[in-house]
Amino acid sequence: MRVLIVEDENKLARNIARALTEAASFAVDISSDGEDGQHMATTNPYDLIILDLMLPKINGLEILQNLRHRGHHTPVLILTAKSMKEDIIRGLDLGSDDYLTKPFEMAELIARCRALIRRVYDRPNPVIQIGNISINMASHTVTFKGKQVMLPAMEYRLLEYLALRLNQLVSKTEILEHLYDFDAENFSNVVEVYVSNLRKKFDPGPHHVLIHTVRGQGYILGDIPQ
Ligand code: CA
């Protein structure tokens, strides 16, 4: 999952980014002014945008209005020091999906982010079961045949993304766009390496029954052979 933080308090933005990466394996980009934030939000397929309201150049409510006006459906969580009811109501009425007022608990922000992303992918249950694999997005854990499996961050990120899009064709481009932030080196051949690693752990044997390759198109995670 890839998240954009539009926030001009740099230290706070970095703390949120670190927490989201560590606790939820999200890829995170940070933008520190409204103009750049709006540009990034409209040119990348983010799964979620965390939006401050008082920002240099373009304020958060204006960004939100512009995004919705242009048909961008990415969920937006407003994170603002303004605790005034009018701003929150205006934000929600302009198309924000959730809000949190500063100061806030990091754990609550992360939980809200997870909930918003589950909603986008129409997976209200945080536990996704595929064959013998169980992915708990709330606790960020994976079990296989009842035993917990510790996955490197990128393998978890890929497995979770494929699981959220269960039984759907996921292109390599989509994987690269949703799993990597701007700072990451996204060489497309690494996707194959991660898929291969996941198969060794969850889908061994000559005939893959869980992670299916659709030649030249991408991958499908599903327990029913496609
Ligand atoms: Ca601000």
Q: How would you summarize the topology of this molecule?
A:
Elements lengths: L1 E5 L3 H15 L2 E5 L2 H10 L4 E4 L8 H10 L6 E5 L4 H9 L4 E4 L4 H15 L6 E4 L2 E4 L4 E4 L2 E3 L3 H12 L4 E3 H8 L9 H14 L8 E4 L3 E4 L5
The protein binds calcium ion (CA).
Could you name the key traits of this structure?
single chain; binds calcium ion; 2 domains; 226 residues; alpha/beta; elongated; 5-stranded parallel β-sheet; Arc Repressor Mutant, subunit A; Rossmann fold
Brief description of this entry?
By secondary structure, the protein is an alpha/beta fold.
Read across the widest sheet, the strand sequence of neighbours is 2-1-3-4-5
Mean pLDDT over the full residue set? 93
What is the succession of H and E elements? EHEHEHEHEHEEEEHEHHEE
Morphology: elongated
Which value, in Å, is the CA radius of gyration? 18 Å
Determine the N-to-C terminus distance. Answer: 25 Å
Q: Quick one: CATH class of the largest domain? A: Alpha Beta
Largest sheet: 5 strands, parallel
Outline the structure in words.
α2 runs parallel beside α3 (60-69). β7 (133-136) and β8 form a beta hairpin. The chain is an alpha/beta fold and 226 residues long. Helix content is 41%, strand content 22%. The protein is built from eight helices and twelve strands. The protein folds into two domains: 2-120, Response regulator (Rossmann fold, 3-Layer(aba) Sandwich); 127-221, Arc Repressor Mutant, subunit A (Orthogonal Bundle), CATH 1.10.10.10. The structure holds calcium ion.
